[in-house]
């Protein structure tokens, strides 16, 4: 019974994570905002070597279609691992995110290693921290 509960819990976390990530790449600000804490902290190596805070930067990026420049996109969450902490109130998700983007007749793939910390607040998951690191350092076309 405990294993079944654990598997359902993990599936819930991964479904939430996919919804959150897809909101970024589909320019869905409303979903992004409804899954991300206003006190978000994050490190994105390709943007700045400094910690960013809050949602303003990502609102600008999502509204201006930075992630895909409007091209058809598919995301893959590779090798996900979920660690539950604080009695199941906190989940640390680590994975490699592969982003596949169609540009002309070619599909480009890029990957980044990510960790996202989720906190359960009033029965709902919220992303509270993100850390991104390079994964391979190349764009495989």
UniProtKB/TrEMBL annotation:
<dbReference type="InterPro" id="IPR013543">
    <property type="entry name" value="Ca/CaM-dep_prot_kinase-assoc"/>
</dbReference>
<dbReference type="GO" id="GO:0004683">
    <property type="term" value="F:calcium/calmodulin-dependent protein kinase activity"/>
</dbReference>
<feature type="domain" description="Calcium/calmodulin-dependent protein kinase II association-domain">
    <location>
        <begin position="11"/>
        <end position="136"/>
    </location>
</feature>
<keyword id="KW-0418">Kinase</keyword>
<keyword id="KW-0808">Transferase</keyword>
<dbReference type="GO" id="GO:0005516">
    <property type="term" value="F:calmodulin binding"/>
</dbReference>
<dbReference type="InterPro" id="IPR032710">
    <property type="entry name" value="NTF2-like_dom_sf"/>
</dbReference>
<protein>
    <submittedName>
        <fullName>Protein kinase</fullName>
    </submittedName>
</protein>
<dbReference type="Pfam" id="PF08332">
    <property type="entry name" value="CaMKII_AD"/>
</dbReference>
């Amino acid at each position: 019974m405990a294993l079944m509960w654990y598997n359902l819990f993990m599936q819930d976390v991964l479904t939430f994570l996919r919804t959150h990530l897809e909101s970024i790449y589909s320019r869905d600000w409303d979903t992004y905002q409804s899954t991300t804490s206003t006190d978000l902290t994050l490190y994105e190596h390709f943007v700045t070597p400094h910690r960013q805070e809050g949602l303003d930067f990502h609102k600008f990026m999502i509204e201006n279609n930075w992630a895909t420049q409007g091209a058809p996109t598919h995301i893959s969450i590779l090798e996900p691992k979920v660690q539950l902490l604080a009695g199941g109130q906190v989940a640390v998700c680590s994975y490699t995110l592969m982003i596949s983007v169609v540009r002309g007749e070619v599909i480009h793939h890029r990957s980044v290693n990510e960790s996202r910390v989720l906190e359960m607040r009033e029965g709902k998951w919220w992303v509270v921290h993100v850390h991104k690191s390079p994964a391979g350092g190349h764009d495989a076309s």
